[in-house]
From TrEMBL:
Location of the region described as Disordered in the Swiss-Prot/TrEMBL record: 1-20
Chain segments annotated as transmembrane: 28-49, 55-76
Reaction catalysis annotation: ATP + protein L-histidine = ADP + protein N-phospho-L-histidine
Organism: Deinococcus aerolatus
PROSITE patterns: HIS_KIN
Molecular function (Gene Ontology), one example: kinase activity
Keyword annotations: Cell membrane, Kinase, Membrane, Phosphoprotein, Transferase, Transmembrane, Transmembrane helix, Two-component regulatory system, Virulence
Origin: domain of life: Bacteria
Family annotation (InterPro entries): 2C_sensor_his_kinase (IPR050980), HATPase_C_sf (IPR036890), HATPase_dom (IPR003594), His_kinase_dom (IPR005467), HisK_dim/P_dom (IPR003661), HisK_dim/P_sf (IPR036097), Sig_transdc_His_kin-like_C (IPR004358)
Protein name per the record: histidine kinase
UniProt key word Transmembrane: yes
Amino acid sequence: MSARLTSEHHPEPGLAGRRRAGRNTLRTQFALVIFLLAFLPNLVLTFTAQPNLPAGALLGWMLLVGVLCGMVGYVLSGALLRPLSRLQAEVESGDLPARTDDPAEILALRRAFTDVLDRLGTEQTRRNAFMATLVHDLKTPLIAAGHLTHALTTLPLPEAERREVGTQMQAETQRLLALVQQMADAHRFEREDVSIQRVPTDLRALLDGVARRVQPQTEWGSLTLSVEGHGVALADAQVLERAVTNLAENAIRYAHSRVELSVTPEGLAVADDGPGLGGSLALLAQPFTSQPTAIAGQQYTAGTAGLGLFIARRIAEAHGGELRYTYHPHQLPEHDAASLSASCLPTIFTLTLPEVTP
């Protein structure tokens, strides 16, 4: 009984909220302001003139003036707010055509809404790319590890083959761990600054360490890997090595025959004779944008290139530098590519540092 009485005496919040929202609209406020601006002067003039009219006639006259002022307020408020109502309908439909006949304030709102919709579209694209990365880069090594495990546990393999299968399983596990680490780094670096501790760092020793780490990948692709240059800079060696490793792995993925790591007066450079990026560095060096793309007429599947470039860019910025990209296809001759210096290789990524001492 008490619950029924409570519901009878207290209407549902949703209905009350809609009633309040209906009264508290911009058009209602505009109409009220126009009504008052039109009605109050008429009211003052009527009582100031003190016409010799009966009270009933005077009341009827004021009621007529009030109705006319209310209608004028309603019509004018609708006309004033028509561009805003049109913008609301366009935002709800997701289609914001370019218009020049709107007031300046509506044009500013239109630009703001366009920017918001563009950012939402970019976020949706990145989310899709993230799912593509998960499906492709996680699924492939997991399937391979599953096949290797099945072979190791069910097939009567000789000892040498069992060791080879175990080595392959370890390689697939390391690949999975590296991908998960990249995703975790990209997620963290996107939301917070990269924490570094600068100390004098031998850049040549750092590149030698990266070369040893990625050497097995170059052997699988029959690539030539070389390291050039010497220098010292204030840097966080562990964090900087992660950035260069990402750049080196990307170069190995796309190179035709050669990859070179070098210390330059500007910082650290990773060069290769591959086809270059399929878009601008600003567009591709973003987290989770590694969608399948066409580069120099060749189709490349989704991978972690976007993650690696984004992490390298954030690490470069944390050191006070930047990540630069240049591509000069005309510098690559058709023969004797192995004799080229890094400056002559067509694709060059440079991670700049504030000061490099030879």
